[in-house]
Amino acid sequence: KFARRNATKPFIFFMQIKIDKLVFGGQGMGKIDGKAAFVWNALPGEEVEARVLKNKSNFIEAVAEKIIFPSPERVLAQESHYLSCSPWQILSTTAEDYWKKEIARETFYKFGGFEPKNLEIISEEKRFSYRNKMEFSFAVVDDKITLAFFERGGRSHTPIDGCILAEACINDTAKNILAWINEVKIPIRSLKSLILRSDSQGKTIAALFVKDHLNFEIYPELTPDFLGFHIYFSSHLTPASIPHEILYTTGQNYLVADLNGFKLKFGLLSFFQINVPLFVQALKDIEKFLEPEARILDFYSGVGAIGISLSKKVKSCVCVDNNKEAIEYAVENIALNGLKNYEARLTSAEKITELITADKTVIFDPPREGLHQKVVDRVLAVEPSRVLYLSCNLTTQARDIKLLSEKYTPVFHQLYNFFPATPHVESLVILSATKDPLK
After folding, report:
1. Residue ranges with strand state E in 240-375
2. Residue 2 near residue 14, CB atoms below 8 Å
3. In 3-state terms, what secondary structure has residue 30?
4. Which long-range contacts (CB under 8 A, 24 or more apart) does 30-33 make?
């Protein structure tokens, strides 16, 4: 079952394995010698030859390099680097929807102790060109800098020309900045990342993160569609793209999106949903569960996208987030849309739990780590009649719902394919403090 392909590379092993199913995270899973094996580029029913990445005492990680018997659901990937950005490019759209529902059911049963009934997923026909934010790394090919992604399961860089997940304007702007990088000859050791955002109307802004203090005689020129460019020094001591110092700025550092009939400003570094059409659908479903003249709390609010977009049915709203840039834009967005009885607070949710009261409708859209225990405890103590929980991480959402199940019952559950061609999915759960289904 295991074989060493090349005796001159003694640490590279291959295995032949049959794949049983797809699992949370996106890999195909099978068993070999009684041990679970998680294999990228492998689909249920396939027999593959896979290169072993990790061989631990209780599991194996690998990537399939030869498909011996392919699945009928396998389709041709649109990009050579698909494993780095969207490993489910090889899966048909019908099968993708099926497996996202199956994985969600399994995850909620395993981590939440319940299985959602009649669980459905909303997808759009548009499978690519949907992302309004991208972060690229860099590599060197033939003495020229190229865009790059990290290799799946490794630390090396995969050179790319762009990514079909991104809106076309993002790829165009990235290529223009890349041409400038090569023109001014920035060394690869100085480059960390390039972040670009778009407004879904063809306009972009961008930030280049560098690991040295650099300045240049020329910079990329702005255009009617390329509205702002910024260079940040970001220490090599931190792998993340953290702006430690601004080195150059020109044009806008924000964009304005039209969301559900409202104008919303958002910045390069503040959170904003990356698939606007599907997010709008989620907002419509959330709105169905708001009583007229509802008083809402929008916790983990970002720039206020949820609370502000629901303002036609809302009497008052407090947006709470611990990201300074996001709350500054939330304040601007409240004014931009002329909303009364709206406010934004810069603080962590767990530090302002006193805002959660029985007469409020609470909306959560937390980061991947889910709700803080202090937030859960406060909800259980005061019992708001309704909790609306949107999440991109099924495991922590399931965990939190289990914690809240002492007082709450899920009465609505919907999945949204915010991230086509990837294993990721968005989940909305409506919780009622009563045991009766919401009407």
Report:
1. 245-251, 254-259, 262-267, 294-299, 314-321, 342-346, 361-364
2. yes
3. strand
4. 32/1, 32/60, 33/1
* Residues 13 and 2 sit within 8 Å (Cβ to Cβ): yes
Query: What phi, psi does 278 have (nearest 5°)?
Result: -70, -35
CA distance 37 to 21: 11
**Taking the CB of residue 32, how many other CB atoms lie within 10 A of it?**
18
- Cα 34 to chain center, whole Å? 34
**421 close to 128: Cβ distance less than 8 angstroms:** yes
Number of H helices, E strands in the chain: 8, 24
Mapping DSSP to helix (H, G, I), strand (E, B) and coil, where does residue 107 land? helix
Query: Which tens digit of pLDDT belongs to each residue from 101-126?
Result: 999 999 999 999 998 988 999 999 88
* Two tokens, residue 163: 């990514």
CA-to-CA dists, residue 136 to 84, 121, 133, 178, 267, angstroms = 11, 29, 10, 11, 18
- Give the chain's radius of gyration (CA, Å): 23
Question: For 373-404, how does the pLDDT look when each residue is reduced to its tens digit (9 = 90+)?
Answer: 999 999 999 999 999 999 999 999 999 999 99
Contact 234, 242 (CB under 8 A): yes
Q: Given the structure tokens 């049959």, which residue do they identify?
A: 18
Residues paired with 32 in a beta bridge: 35
How far is the C-alpha of 344 from the C-alpha of 322, rounded, in Å? 11
Chain segment 288-305, per-residue pLDDT in tens: 999 999 999 999 999 999
Put simply, whether the predicted model's pTM sits higher than 0.85 gets the answer yes
State both tokens at 155: 């630390």
